[in-house]
Amino acid sequence: MSSFKDLLVYKKAFALAMEIFHITKKFPPEEKYGLTNQIRKSSRSVCSNLGEGYRKRRYEAHFISKASDADMENSETQVWLDFSLACEYISEETYHDLTTKSEEIGRLLNDMIVHPKKYR
């Protein structure tokens, strides 16, 4: 694998971040510096942590730390999805779709954390 962009988890996380970006364009203006900014930031941070960690993958502890940071940001994204649903900014169907995608990303990140040697 030549690039972190080739990782399945990166592709899925990037797609989810972009989907969240487009959905949050419809959030109310008063959420711009709150929920909208937070969910966009956390979903994008999954990708940035993967990129940073992949470049240092020969240093196992650093790689695991960055994969763990990506997992933490993915979990934060799920919290913001909870708020988005509770505030009625997204439908139940959208919530379940995005949450399912986030959970799959979490499983892939967990594999990186548990089996870092696979990614050297």
Layout of SSEs?
Elements: H1 8-24, H2 32-55, H3 60-86, H4 92-114
Helix pairs in contact: 1-2, 1-4, 2-3, 3-4
List keywords for this structure.
single chain, 120 residues, mainly alpha, 4 helices, 76% helix, elongated
How would you describe what is shown here?
Helices cover 76% and strands 0% of the residues. It has helices at residues 8-24, 32-55, 60-86, 92-114. By secondary structure, it is an all-alpha fold. It has four helices and no strands.
Give a concise summary.
With 120 residues, the chain is mainly alpha-helical. It has helices at 8-24, 32-55, 60-86, 92-114. The protein has four helices and no strands.
Average pLDDT figure = 96
- Overall geometry comes to elongated
Instruction: Tell me the Rg in angstroms.
Output: 15 Å
β-strand amount: under 5%
Structural class: mainly alpha
Number of E strands: 0
Query: Mind summarizing the main beta sheet?
Result: none
User: Can you tell me the residue ranges where pLDDT is under 50 for at least 5 consecutive residues?
Assistant: none
What is the tally of helical segments? 4
| Amount of helix | over 70%
Task: Provide the succession of SSEs.
Answer: HHHH
Termini, distance in Å?
9 Å
